[in-house]
């Protein structure tokens, strides 16, 4: 398991974003050399966990619990076959493109060591949005991405440090539950009745997801 690329984006004006200033940092490209990774601060204040990476709409993106977004190269290859075109590392707006790691099959709360120092913790799957659809330029993309159910993973920073392309990735902790990123994504999108199952992941869940699961479980208890 290794890190194929570290991808950063700059703020760019586009016609397809919901950001009030019409800018987005979703167009991420691989970079050479080390990149500093650290917790950026709470959502609404903090942006990306990677130095030099633009997150423009902090109301919905970035913050400690969405500090880093990872996508498996294997999933990008599946989409290449379906879409009939090449997808560069970073094409989905991911910060990390991995190889040999089942990102959507990762457990909520699973921890990865990247390189010698950085430790990240899985918090949730990525929910597709209008900006993502505009960036890909594919009709019905939000629906198609949702139906596939392999969203990649958001992660929080447990141990900061520097990472670079080629770094090994090691799973250093797997929690004792069965709540995967894929399951969490289905519960949040197409199968809301699964929400109570997410409670097994506890505080490792993205706080907004945890609150949604608790609210649903209380509403339909008994």
Largest sheet: 8 strands, mixed
Number of helices: 5
The poorly predicted ranges are none
Mean pLDDT: 95
Give the SSE order as H and E letters. Answer: EEEEEEHEEEHHEEEHH
Lateral strand order in the biggest sheet: 4-1-7-6-10-9-8-12
Structural class category = alpha+beta
Q: Can you walk through the features of this model?
A:
- This protein is globular.
- The protein is α+β, with helices and mostly antiparallel strands and about 220 residues long.
- The protein has five helices and twelve strands.
- It has helices spanning about 75-85, 130-135, 140-150, 180-190, 205-220; strands at about 1-10, 10-15, 25, 30, 35, 70, 95-100, 110-115, 120-125, 155-160, 160-165, 170-175.
């Amino acid at each position: 398991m290794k890190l194929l690329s570290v991808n950063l984006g700059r703020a760019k004006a586009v016609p397809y974003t919901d950001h009030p200033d019409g800018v987005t940092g979703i167009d991420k490209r691989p970079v050479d050399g080390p990149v500093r990774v650290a917790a950026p601060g709470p959502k609404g204040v903090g942006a990306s966990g990677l130095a030099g990476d633009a997150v423009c709409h902090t109301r919905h993106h970035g913050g400690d619990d969405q500090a880093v977004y990872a996508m498996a190269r294997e999933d990008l290859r599946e989409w290449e076959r379906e879409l009939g075109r090449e997808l560069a590392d970073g094409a989905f707006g991911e910060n990390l493109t991995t190889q040999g790691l089942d990102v959507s099959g990762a457990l909520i709360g699973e921890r990865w060591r990247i390189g010698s120092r950085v430790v990240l913790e899985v918090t949730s799957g990525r929910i597709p949005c209008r900006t993502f659809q505009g960036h890909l330029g594919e009709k019905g993309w939000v629906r198609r991405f949702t139906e596939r159910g392999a969203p990649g993973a958001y992660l929080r920073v447990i141990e900061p440090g520097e990472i670079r392309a080629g770094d090994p990735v090691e799973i250093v902790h797997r929690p004792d539950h069965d709540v995967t990123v894929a399951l969490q994504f289905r519960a949040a999108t197409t199968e809301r009745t699964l929400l109570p199952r997410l409670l097994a992941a506890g505080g490792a869940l993205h706080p907004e997801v945890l609150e949604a699961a608790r609210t649903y479980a209380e509403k339909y208890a008994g």
